[in-house]
């Protein structure tokens, strides 16, 4: 049976500022019975998820399969690249077979093979790229190389109508990027993390707090564990210094907060004689404060980006949208606060359903669709395609942000915390 992408997504309209849950059945891309639907297979292995999906140009997910390595890496205390590679190798064939079988199609029925080739962990990327090329050669299909972060950025367009240009915040385990998406291939970079990504900070702090030793947090990603623990704590109980507060840019920094949290945990362990698998008292307050520290930092950088966009007239006044995607966009506390910023600046907020925010094959297949129908994605010479573990997103406009020298009047914490 064919089904639509995730059932819901969140939109916060600019003026009404209500959270609307709109079914994605409300919109379909350019799909009338007259149109020929193209069908793209997407393959994702850039980090620790082996994902495959088959998506058509109307945004229907025809089939999908995902193998997550999360539990193995949680047990190891972090991702060990050769282990991630071996697990991808072990599962990729089965994942593709399952996705194709669930679509009730043969590989001969797809129009092209889209595969993540950048950015990501080299050993992991290689497994996907080699398998994608192998499928393309075996079945005589065009190959579409995919930029993982561009795919996160455009996933929303599969589930709801978001026209270019829009502002997009990508927050994941490996990246923190803020850009204006002008088209399928056109991005203007306004800010990025100078050190850790927010997901990385959540993961490392959660591990240092040993949250996984509490049964209810076992098996959750660091970010999801901190979000759950934070519901029982006070976000203002522990004050983290504002990060990059003297820099009038839209870059991000999480390392200071991560180190402060680590020092606090060590001090608490020492003071309370916490040893081995023990957990510090006040762990929920610390989780709530960490989550708030990251949230308020993201909100401030977005505020400056919105001011910059107004100054440079980069988005049409009547339909300004902030898209938030990547694994950390699963966090409703963060998206709730970003919704308040959107309300203040007259933006709609659009967030894909959680299942499409974390890594998956669907977003790669959808990005393949976007590229395929814009007629520029497929490559002829497979040998000319290689992985690019480090790869920027779009044209760097960060110096222009600095030169605009924008001082912001920050939205009050009370207002941002309203969504709690
Ligand atoms: O996009 P993603 O699946 O993989 C990367 O490309 O990195 O993001 C994974 C990250 C992890 O760091 C995880 O802790 C974080 O997303 N994450 C969350 C939540 N769920 C997943 N962070 C905060 N709150 C959540 N609910
Ligand atoms: Zn990702």
Automatic annotation (TrEMBL):
Gene3D superfamilies from the UniProt entry: 3.30.420.40
Essential cofactor(s): a divalent metal cation
Biological processes, Gene Ontology terms: tRNA threonylcarbamoyladenosine modification
Annotated GO MF terms: metal ion binding; tRNA N(6)-L-threonylcarbamoyladenine synthase activity
Signal peptide: none
Catalytic activity: L-threonylcarbamoyladenylate + adenosine(37) in tRNA = N(6)-L-threonylcarbamoyladenosine(37) in tRNA + AMP + H(+)
Residues passing through the membrane, by range: 6-25, 164-184
UniProt-listed Enzyme Commission number(s): 2.3.1.234
Origin: domain of life: Eukaryota
Keyword Hydrolase: no
Co-factor note (free text): Binds 1 divalent metal cation per subunit.
GO cellular component term of the entry, any: mitochondrion
Domain spans labelled Gcp-like: 60-366
Coiled-coil stretches noted in the UniProt entry, renumbered to this chain: none
Predominant location category: mitochondrion
Stated family: Belongs to the KAE1 / TsaD family.
HAMAP family: TsaD (MF_01445)
Complex and partners: Homodimer.
Biological role: Required for the formation of a threonylcarbamoyl group on adenosine at position 37 (t(6)A37) in mitochondrial tRNAs that read codons beginning with adenine. Probably involved in the transfer of the threonylcarbamoyl moiety of threonylcarbamoyl-AMP (TC-AMP) to the N6 group of A37. Involved in mitochondrial genome maintenance.
Identification of the protein by name: N(6)-L-threonylcarbamoyladenine synthase
Organism: Timema cristinae
């Amino acid at each position: 049976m064919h089904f639509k992408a995730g059932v819901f997504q969140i939109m916060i309209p600019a003026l009404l500022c209500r959270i609307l849950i709109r079914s994605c059945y409300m919109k379909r891309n350019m799909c009338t019975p007259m149109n020929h639907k193209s069908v793209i297979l997407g393959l994702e292995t850039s980090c620790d998820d082996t994902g495959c999906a088959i998506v058509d140009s109307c945004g229907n997910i025809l089939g999908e399969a995902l193998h997550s390595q999360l539990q193995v890496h949680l047990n190891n205390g972090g991702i060990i690249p050769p282990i991630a590679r071996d697990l991808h190798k072990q599962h990729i064939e089965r994942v593709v077979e399952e996705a194709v079988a669930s679509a009730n199609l043969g590989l001969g029925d797809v129009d092209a093979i889209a595969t993540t080739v950048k950015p990501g962990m080299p050993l992991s990327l290689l497994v996907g790229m080699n398998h994608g090329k192998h499928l393309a050669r075996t079945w005589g299909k065009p190959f579409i190389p995919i930029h993982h972060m561009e795919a996160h950025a455009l996933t929303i367009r599969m589930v709801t109508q978001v026209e270019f240009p829009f502002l997009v915040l990508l927050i994941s385990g490996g990246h923190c990027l803020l850009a204006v998406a002008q088209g399928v291939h056109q991005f203007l970079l306004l800010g990025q993390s100078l050190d850790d990504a927010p997901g990385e900070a959540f993961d490392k702090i959660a591990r240092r707090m040993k949250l996984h030793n509490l049964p209810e947090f076992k098996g959750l990603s660091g970010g999801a564990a901190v979000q759950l623990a934070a519901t029982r704590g006070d976000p203002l109980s522990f004050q983290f210094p504002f990060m990059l507060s003297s820099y009038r840019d839209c870059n991000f920094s999480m390392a200071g907060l991560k180190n402060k949290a680590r020092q606090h945990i060590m001090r608490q362990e020492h003071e309370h004689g916490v040893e081995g698998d023990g957990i510090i008292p006040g762990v929920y307050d610390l989780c709530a404060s960490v989550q708030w520290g990251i949230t308020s930092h993201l909100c401030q950088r977005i505020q400056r980006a919105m001011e910059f966009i107004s100054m440079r007239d980069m988005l049409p006044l009547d339909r300004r949208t902030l898209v938030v995607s990547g694994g950390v966009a699963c966090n409703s506390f963060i998206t709730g606060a970003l919704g308040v910023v959107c309300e203040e600046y007259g933006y709609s907020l659009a967030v894909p359903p959680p299942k499409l925010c974390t890594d998956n094959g669907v977003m790669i297949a959808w990005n393949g669709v976007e590229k395929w129908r814009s007629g520029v994605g497929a490559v002829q010479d497979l040998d000319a395609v290689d992985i690019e573990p480090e790869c920027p997103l779009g044209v760097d406009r960060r110096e222009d942000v600095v030169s605009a020298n924008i001082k912001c009047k920050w939205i009050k914490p009370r207002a941002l915390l309203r969504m709690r």
